[in-house]
Write a structure and sequence with these properties.
- It is a single chain.
- The protein contains four helices and nine strands.
- The chain is an alpha+beta fold.
- 32% of the residues are buried.
Amino acid sequence: MTRGVKLCYRGLGADEICRELFYGFVRRQVVTDCWRREEGRWVIREDGFVDDWAEEDYRELITSLKSTAARSGLVYACFCDGALKGFVSVEPERFGARREYLDLTNLHVSEDMRGRGIGTVLFRAARQWARREGASKLYLSAHSAVETQAFYRARGCVEAREYSREHVEREPFDCQLECSCEP
C-alpha cells in the first residue's frame, strides 16, 4: 500500500482550487486496450494512446471543481508531503427518472502514486458522501480503458441501468456505470 509514505485526505473548498494545486499531479495514462460496445455486446479493442491534460483541460477542470465545491458537492483530495496526489468529485444534484443518482464526475490518482490504494479510499469516500446525501446510487461516465474499468468493476460498479444522454453525448466512448451507495 503506502509504506513509509504519509498521506493526508481532506475536503477541498472552492477557494483552494487553483492551477498551483496541480503542480505535483501527473495525469498521464498510457492506454493500450479499451472496452467498446459493438452490436449490443462489450468487447475489448486495441486503441492505444496517451491520455494527458493540456492547460485548457486544467482550466476546465479547475472551473468545474470550484463550481462543485461552491454548490456544496464533494471535492475530496489526497496529499503526500503537501502535494496533491489524488482527488474525487461528486455533484450535489440528484438526477435520473427516480432521482436516485449522484454524479461522480472525477476520480484521478497521480501517475506516480497509482497502485497504493488511494483510488479505493477516494471512491469509498464518494460512496459514503452520496449515501449521506440521500442518493441510492453513484453514476459514473468512466474512461473505457481496460485498467480503469477493472478498477471500477472491482468496487462493485456495473453497467448503468439508466444512461445519462448528456454524458453519452459528451464522451461517447466512456462506459456508463452505476454503483450502489449501500454499505
